[in-house]
Amino acid sequence: MSKEFVHHGHTVRVVFAAGARARLAEETERLDLRRLLVVSTPGHADQARDIAAPLGNRVVDLHAHATMHVPVATAAKAVAHARDLDVDGCVAIGGGSAIGLAKAVAKETGLPILAVPTTYAGSEMTPIWGLTDAGRKTTGRDPKVLPATVIYDPELTVTLPVGLSVTSGINALAHAAEALYAPDLSPVIALMAEESVKVLATALPQVVGDPTDIDARSDALYGAWLAGACLGSTTMSLHHKLCHVLGGAFDLPHSPTHAAVLPHVLAFNLQAAPTALEILRRALGVEDPAVHIHTITADLGAARSLRELGLPAEGIDQVIQQTLATPCTNPRDINADGIRRVMQASYDGRPPSHNPL
Ligand code: NAD
Question: Whose CA is closest to atom 27 on ligand 1?
Fold first, then answer.
C-alpha cells in the first residue's frame, strides 16, 4: 500500500548524557541568555539551586512555586515576576510541573526555555501548555512554549522515588501508546513510539530493582524523551483527555492517574486501532498490551485504582460530562456509556476487560 502521512516534527536541541547538567552554562551561553529565572517546585528547590549554581550571577532568581496542573493564579504570579525582573529566559528544573510553569511564562512573554527534566513526563519535548482554572484544565499548543534546549541527565533522576519513577514512566508510555492511534501518526513517530515503549517496559523494572542503576535510569529517560517527542507531534485522544479532566476537576496526582487509567483506555481503544495493537504487541512482546500494562503497573508497586488516588465515586458522572463537553479525537467513538465503562474500571482498579466494538 502506498504511504500517506503528514509529519509535524519540532526542533529542540537535546543534550543527553550522564552528567550533562555540567553543560548548563555552556548551553545558556549558546542561547545568549544573561538574566535567567530558574523555575522549580518547592520540594525540588535545593536541587534546582545546586544544578543552577554554575550559572552564577546569570541567575536573577529561583522561583520555586510550581505546582501540578498549573493553576492560573500561580501562572499569573510567575509571569509578573519574570516581567518585574526583566529576565531574558527561564531555566525549568524538575518534572512536568516546573516545565509547565515555565511554559505559562513563555506563553505570555515569549521568553525562551531551557529545560532540565528530572521525571519522565515528557513535557519538555512538546509545544503543549496546560492551565487549570476553577476545576477545569485547559490545554493548547503554541510554538512559543516549546523549550529551545533540553538537557537530559539521568543522574538527576536517581532521587526520583521509585513509585513516582514507575508512574511517571507509565505516563511516558501513555504518550507513545496514544500517538500510535493518533490521526496524525507518521512513520517516524511510529518508530519512535515503538522504541519508547520497548525501552520503558524494560527499564522500569530495572529502576525498581536498583533505583541507582544509571544505565537503567538512562534507558528510562531515553524512552521518556522519545515519548515526549511523540506527544508533541500528534493529537491527544481519550486517555489524555480523561487524565486532564481528572487532574483539573479533582486535583488527582498526574502520573499515578495516567497509570490507573491507561490499561482501561487501551482495552477500550485497541480493537479499533489494529496498527497500534500490532506495534504495542511487538514492543511489549505480549498478546494483550492492556492487561500487560495493568499487571506490570501493579507488580511495580503503583496504585491501580482511581479510588485509591482519591476520586470520589460520584466524580465519575462529572468526568463523563466534562469529557463530552469538549470532544477529542479517538479511534473508537466516545459516548457516555463507553466513558463510564473505562472510568468505572479505572476507579475499581480491576483487570481490564475488552468491550466489544
Ligand atoms: P511533578 O513535576 O509535579 O513532580 C512530582 C514530584 O516529584 C514533585 O514534588 C517534584 O518536586 C518531585 N520531583 C521531580 N523530580 C524529582 C527528582 N528527580 N527527585 C526527587 N523528586 C523529584 O510531576 P510530573 O508528573 O513530572 O509532571 C506533572 C505535570 O506535568 C502535570 O501538571 C501535567 O499536566 C504536566 N505535563 C505536561 C505535559 C505537556 O506536554 N504539556 C506532558 C506531561 C506532563
Answer: 96
How far is ligand 1, taken at its centre, from the CA of residue 248, in Å? Answer: 15
All three cell numbers of 229, joined, read 517527542
Largest Cα span, the chain: 61
- Residue 329 φ/ψ region, left for φ over 0, alpha for ψ in the -120 to 50 degree band, beta for the rest: beta
195 Cα–ligand 1 center, Å? 23
CB 263 within 8 A of CB 212: no
**Interatomic CA distance for residues 216 and 53, integer angstroms:** 27
Q: Read off the C-alpha cell for 348.
A: 475499581
Q: Whose CA is nearest to atom 20 of ligand 1?
A: 160
Q: Say yes or no: CB of residue 101 within 6 Å of ligand 1.
A: no
Of 274, 276, 275, 250, nearest to 261 by C-alpha is: 250
How far apart, in whole angstroms, are the C-alpha atoms of residue 61 and residue 38?
6
Span from the CA of 118 to the centroid of ligand 1 (angstroms) = 8
pLDDT in the model for residue 127: 98
Rounded-to-integer distance, Cα 163 and Cα 299, Å: 11
d(CA 281, CA 354): 16
With 0-12 / 13-18 / 19 or more C-beta atoms within 10 angstroms meaning exposed / middle / buried, residue 281 is: middle
pLDDT tens, position by position, 249-295: 999 999 999 999 999 999 999 999 999 999 999 999 999 999 999 99
